[in-house]
């Protein structure tokens, strides 16, 4: 009896992905949905555009700064400092001239200069990371405001549909009336600042009254 197989009807986009593993076992995974793939591509594009704008000299500084955070750099500093002190404590044993006698002024100056350079490199890298974080925060804020407006519109449409359906009893819902109005971000910020100012003023007033003599 001859057995025939039907051709695979899956499209290339629906074919399961195969994740390589260190072992010989291969575990197939289901393809990601389109919205998740689009979100991942948007995030990758954001980081890619940010990396393209970095000049070459800043890349070199950040690469050197990344080396500062490795354990090998710490061990290297400890070894150099130890050899520096040993060679200047016992120069005659190594046949060297005492180039930095105690209290090791040149060593202190070198370490201070190195600390200044490392701190500057770390600040340069942190500054770029903060700019990227600020861009992500602005993007999140815009998406949150857009989502809030969409939700308010959906609530308004649902309320309109509820009023039009004859089989649903019409009633007044004060919470829905409030929620279907889009929130004003400027009003929220103003109210928050005023509330915080009042709380701080009351707290300072309580501290002043507790410190005043009876």
Q: SSE order, as H and E?
A: EEHHHHHHH
Strand order of the largest sheet: 1-2
Poorly predicted sequence stretches spanning 5 or more consecutive residues = 1-22
**Averaging pLDDT over every residue, what do you get?**
77
Number of helical segments with 4 or more residues: 7
- The helical percent reads 55-70%
Structure, described:
Strand 1 and strand 2 (27-29) form a beta hairpin. The chain has 7 helices and 2 strands. Strands 1-2 form a two-stranded antiparallel ribbon. The protein is 69% helix and 3% strand. By secondary structure, it is mostly helical. The protein has helices spanning 34-52, 56-68, 71-89, 91-94, 105-164, 174-179, 185-211; strands spanning 17-19, 27-29.
Question: What are the SSEs and their pairings?
Answer:
Blueprint: E1 17-19, E2 27-29, H1 34-52, H2 56-68, H3 71-89, H4 91-94, H5 105-164, H6 174-179, H7 185-211
Antiparallel strand pairs: 1-2
Helix pairs in contact: 2-5
Attribute tags:
214 residues; mainly alpha; two-stranded antiparallel ribbon
Summarize the structure.
The chain is mainly α. 69% of the residues lie in helices and 3% in strands.
